[in-house]
Amino acid sequence: MKKTIILSTVLALTACGESGTPRERVEANFHKINKACADKMGDYSGTAGLIAYNGSDRARKYKDLASAEGEDRAILNKMCYQISSLKKGSDRNSYTVMGMTEEKESEGTWYVLEVKYPNNNKGQFAFLDIDGTMALGDID
């Protein structure tokens, strides 16, 4: 009986979003974003659903995922431009994760991934859990 309840709970949680620890989820989505931002043709639609909406609509800001349509597309482009600038001159998918920290803010818990590229540029990529998806919300 207990095994059935535990298994049902695990299956329900897995179906609601990504599986793994926060760090595993952040790293997996960062890898997907990094790869999609390497598109030389400038089509960053592969990052849709992985980046937090941070536009002018206050009801959606850091509560919704950016799509590849309208104002949302500008959000995807901006994030990819920032990533491309950090990794300029480096292999498009090469980077080293230096660590991750958690910061509690009004929007929720930010998971900040510290990354170093082969060109020695470093970046801090802040993710929020939005509806079961670790979404990139800010880059420093």
Tell me the layout of helices and strands.
Blueprint: H1 2-16, H2 22-37, H3 70-86, E1 96-105, E2 108-116, E3 122-130, E4 133-139
Antiparallel strand pairs: 1-2, 2-3, 3-4
Helix pairs in contact: 2-3
Describe the structure.
It is a single chain. The protein is an alpha+beta fold. It has a single domain, classed as Nuclear Transport Factor 2, Chain: A, CATH 3.10.450. The chain has three helices and four strands. The chain has helices at residues 2-16, 22-37, 70-86, and strands at 96-105, 108-116, 122-130, 133-139. A four-stranded antiparallel β-sheet has the order 1-2-3-4. It starts with a helix and ends with a strand.
What is the 3D shape?
Answer: globular
Q: Roughly how many Å is the radius of gyration?
A: 16 Å
Order of SSEs, N→C? HHHEEEE
Strands of the biggest beta sheet: in what spatial order? 1-2-3-4
Poorly predicted runs of 5 or more residues: 1-15
- CATH class, named Alpha Beta
Q: Can you count the beta strands?
A: 4
The pLDDT mean sits at 86
Report a brief summary of the structure.
With 140 residues, the chain is an alpha+beta fold. The protein has helices at residues 2-16, 22-37, 70-86, and strands at 96-105, 108-116, 122-130, 133-139.
Keywords:
disordered N terminus, 3 helices, Nuclear Transport Factor 2, Chain: A, alpha+beta
